[in-house]
Design brief:
This protein is of the alpha/beta class and 236 residues long. The protein has one domain: 3-Layer(aba) Sandwich (Rossmann fold), CATH 3.40.50. The protein has 8 helices and 8 strands. It is globular and about 50 Å long.
C-alpha cells in the first residue's frame, strides 16, 4: 500500500491523504454517512468489484474512517465443494454456490445487525485442499464487534443473495487488464491459470448481466497512469 494511503488506513486522517485520493474517498465516506443519518439501525454496505480491483485497500480506508466492521467474503468461500466439481458447474451454478451465503448471514451479518459480536471460522486457503479436494476452516475463530457500518467486502457482495440486507452498493471499477496485472504480481502463475479459466466467465456474467455498473449506487475507480494506483489511490 502507498505510504500515505497506509497512514489513512491506520488513522482515518483524511486531511493528510494524498490530494489525488480525496475525491472518491470523500464521496464514499459522505455517501455512507448520508445513508447512516437516516437510519436507527446499522447500515450494510456492499463493496464489490472484480478480482484484483483493490477492494480491500478501500475497505481499510472506510473501516478506519468510520470505525466500520468489515466482513471479507473470502472467509465464506464454499469449502465443501471439491476443486474438480467446480468445472462441472455452469456459470450460473458457480455464482450461486461460490459462497456459503447462509453461513455468512447466520454467523456474521445477523449478529451484527442485532448489536452482538459476530464469530465465524474463515475458509482455510493456506492449508490447501484435503485429499478429497475440498477445504477446511481456520482453527482460530474470527470475531467482529458490532458497529454502525457493516462493510461486506468482496466480489459478488452486491449480488442477489444479500440484496435484502444491503443499504448501499459500491463498485470498485478497474479494467480487467489492470486487475489481471495486479493478480500476476501477487499470485502463483499456475494458480492463476486455473483461477482465470474457472472464475473469469463468472465475473463477466455477474458484472454484465447480474450487477452491471449502472445498477450500483456508487462507482469509484483509480486514476489511470497515476503512480501508486495499484496501492489504492482513488478518484471518482
Amino acid at each position: 500500500m502507498h505510504e500515505k494511503a497506509l497512514v489513512i488506513a491506520r488513522t482515518g486522517d483524511v486531511e493528510n491523504a494524498p490530494e489525488n485520493t480525496l475525491p472518491a474517498y470523500e464521496r464514499v465516506i459522505a455517501e455512507i454517512r448520508r445513508v447512516l443519518s437516516h437510519r436507527q439501525t446499522p447500515v450494510v454496505v456492499a463493496l464489490d468489484g472484480g478480482s484484483g480491483a483493490g477492494k480491500s485497500t478501500l475497505a481499510a480506508l472506510i473501516e478506519q474512517a468510520l470505525d466500520a466492521t468489515v466482513i471479507p467474503l473470502d472467509d465464506f468461500f464454499s469449502a465443501d465443494i471439491p476443486d474438480d466439481q467446480w468445472d462441472g458447474f455452469t456459470v450460473e451454478e458457480k455464482l450461486e454456490h461460490v459462497l456459503d451465503w447462509d453461513r455468512m448471514r447466520d454467523q456474521a451479518i445477523a449478529p451484527l445487525l442485532k448489536g452482538r459480536v459476530a464469530r465465524w471460522h474463515a475458509f482455510d486457503f493456506e492449508s490447501g485442499p484435503r485429499p478429497e479436494g475440498n477445504y477446511g476452516m481456520q482453527a482460530e475463530a474470527t470475531e467482529r464487534e458490532p458497529a454502525d457500518v457493516i462493510l461486506i467486502e468482496g466480489t459478488y457482495a452486491a449480488g442477489p443473495a444479500l440484496a435484502d440486507l444491503v443499504d448501499l452498493s459500491i463498485l470498485v471499477d478497474v479494467p480487467v487488464e489492470q486487475r489481471h496485472a495486479r493478480l500476476r504480481r501477487r499470485e502463483d502463475t499456475g494458480f492463476l491459470v486455473t483461477w482465470h479459466k474457472r472464475w473469469d466467465p463468472v465475473e463477466s456474467h455477474y458484472f454484465n448481466n447480474v450487477r452491471p455498473k449502472s445498477s450500483f449506487d456508487l462507482v469509484v475507480r483509480p486514476m489511470e497512469g497515476m503512480p501508486g494506483q495499484d496501492q489504492g489511490l482513488w478518484l471518482p
